[in-house]
Amino acid sequence: MILVNTETIPGRTIVQVKGLVQGNTIRAKHFGRDIAAGFKNLIGGELKGYTELLTEARRQALERMIGQAHELGANAVVNVRFTTSSITQGAAELYAYGTAVTVE
Amino acid sequence: MPFWLEMVIQFAPVVVLLTLGYFVGTWRERAHFRALARREAELRDILVVNLKAVTRPETVANAEIVMSEAVIATDYFKGFVAGFRNFIGGRVTSYESLMERARREALLRLLDQTRAMGASELWNVRFETANVLKQNGGGNSPAVSVDVIASGTAITRRAG
User: Fold this and answer.
1) Chain A / chain B CB contacts < 8 angstroms
2) Superfamily assignment of B3-157 in CATH?
3) How do the pLDDT tens digits run along chain A, 104 residues long?
4) CATH number assigned to the domain comprising residue A66
5) Does residue A104 sit at the B interface (CB-CB below 8 Å)?
6) Residue A8 phi/psi, 5° resolution?
7) Residue B22: count of CB within 10 angstroms of its CB
């Protein structure tokens, strides 16, 4: 599966457009990460626990999107985009979407 | 208990946190900016653009998405100063440096992945800002954090 966030795959020709594919995931942070982040907030710097949580969420959203693309018989997803939303404090939604296509 | 002692006990924790935030926070921020500058210098040979249409597509060997995240927090002192700034208005410099750190860090992570793939160019770079994990102000701490999600397409060219 080829993934790009450009509208075409450079060097390849799109032969068929299969349609929109999407994947989402909602993750809640756990208490331990909150405590670590609370300390970090005093001295500044990266909140590694939160970064990891976002990375995991992004991977899972992408996996679900790729799953849909497989079902459609596509071999690539172009114009992949991400959005986030906070539903409640401490839970994050990550949503990935793109257009499934078949390339030569 | 004399009045002055009561005041000291009441304000001591805040003063300690402000001092800690100011000294440790400033030191850590400087260290981060130095690390950013050093890593940027190492990765300078990678072409970075936010254009969607890749030029000379016939020479492209491989195109693959790269993504990164960075969650950076300010220190207690900067959050406190920014709180005052909200009263009088104007430039909130303490948050400007926070945003700069988060975006530069996220971009560098994209470039690290680009390098690891053996790609030489990064196209269609996009930044998203969110605050999904922590609401501004979060509880009674004045510190603020920001989440930056960056993505791009790493391009490898055919030799010759």
Assistant:
1) 144
2) Hypothetical protein apc22750. Chain B (3.30.110.70)
3) 999 999 999 989 999 999 999 999 998 877 777 777 777 778 888 988 888 888 999 999 999 999 999 999 999 999 999 998 877 776 778 999 999 999 98
4) 3.30.110.70
5) no
6) -130, 165
7) 17
